Amino acid sequence: MTVSLPTPSQLRAVAEQCGLSLTEEDVASFRGLMQGSIEAYNLVAQMPDELPEVKYPRTPGTRPAPEENKHNAWYRKATVKGASSGKLKGKTVALKDNIMLAGVPMTNGSSTLEGYIPDFDATIVTRMLDAGAEIVGKTHCEHFCLSGGSHTGSYGPVHNPHKMGYSAGGSSSGSGVVVALGEVDMAIGGDQGGSIRMPSSFCGTYGMKPTWGLVPYTGIMPIEIYVDHTGPMTATVEDNALLLEVLAGDDGYDPRIKAPKVEDYTKALGAGVKGMKIGIVKEGFEQPTAEAAVNESVREAAKRFKDLGASIDTVSIPMHLAGGAIWTPIGTEGLTQTMMFGDGYGLSRGDLYSTSLMDFHRGWRRQADSLSETTKLFMMLGTYINNNFGPRFYGKALNISRRLTAAYDKAFKDYDLLLMPTTPMKATKLPEPNASREEYVARALEMIGNTAPFDITHHPAMSLPCGMVDGLPVGLMLVGRMFEEKTIYRAAHAFEQAGDWKKM
Ligand SMILES: NC(=O)c1ccccc1
């Protein structure tokens, strides 16, 4: 790729875009003044990129046949064997399809990325392989991860593991399904508004959104740095803690990681909850879309923590119900400026940039009509706001997010954990292919009220299955102090060991 000097007409167009009026003389002079910098660009263009080495051999894999993919959870099966020993020896892992696995196609749920092949492994991929894991494939996710349902991906809806025709939750939809069906031991998800925890809730799996800045997001297609998280989705608490042990810690690339507190999470298991103080967040049961049976199931589960020796109490955090609103400018403008118009990355952070993804992803502009209805909606809103107000609402919301963090931290003075339903409802029916746009969008966004606040406050939060209603799982969310994943695991493990949630 080389850069040529702008032609006079290109320069006049750029000047107009910048609000400048140039004479013909100005055009000639500015062209001359750009010559040296254009040469600098071409020097950069000729230099080799600086990417991490790909350590383990693999093949591009295959799309599984429909009969091997009844729930449509898999995008691709591809096997990569890791080291011969390590903490994850014998464990199979699936990756959400926004995670780069070099040499294996990646779409992030969008047909506009069809044909893209990553050229390096995400940091967490290398870490899992170094720990002896076997990666077995990539799972379908929602279109550019912008939905909590499982019907917006370009490759068709993903079905709930407990009931065909029902939502698996999203956006890490396929990861929830393959774990719940036992097709893999472990999966990786991503979470910007709840996308690890929501499918965990709908599918009946354990899903941890770790503290922001604990697990490197390097090599995962970003939405927006302030909300991007990745983390483990598993069938047991022990596997979840074990996987987080492997994923956590600075990688020298991710600029959000500053001296994280990394712990041996599995050491938290078995300690019980005696003496632990759990605050039941009143407002977490008051979302507009709350389902009475789900609230009831989560309240019953809270009592089981009490039976196990924890003290439980109701705590009111009024600002919790504003969390979704405060998330909205950050999520919307972030995804518009960074993921869409920033070609996946935008500027201004010392990250590891995938220029191959940036080059390929630019092409969405030629196929914008094929984007999902949720992507179109968010992107048009973000563009409208940006055209008329600039990024000031993003900035103000980010400032206010600190007040939201403080509101939870105040509760953490009295409580070790906060508890509420992960999603206000259990899995809903997948919209019919001819459903209205209004229904399509409702089924994509109606469940994020309890999860999204913690993507901007950055507290660790985990969904655990706590019961069944009408044959569908109910998810309970535990939220901890910053970097206190250990406390969450301690409680989640005690709860898991105390009884089979499928019978509750
Ligand atoms: N990726 C997410 O967590 C997300 C979920 C719902 C809406 C937007 C983003």
TrEMBL record:
UniProt xrefs under InterPro entries: Amidase, Amidase_CS, Amidase_dom, AS_sf
SUPFAM superfamilies: Amidase signature (AS) enzymes
Pfam families on file: Amidase
Superkingdom: Bacteria
Keyword Hydrolase attributed: yes
Residue ranges of every copy of the Amidase domain listed in the record: 72-488
GO molecular-function terms, A-Z: hydrolase activity
Keywords of this entry: Hydrolase
Role, per record: Hydrolyzes indole-3-acetamide (IAM) into indole-3-acetic acid (IAA).
Name of the protein in its database record: Indoleacetamide hydrolase
Provenance organism: Bradyrhizobium ivorense
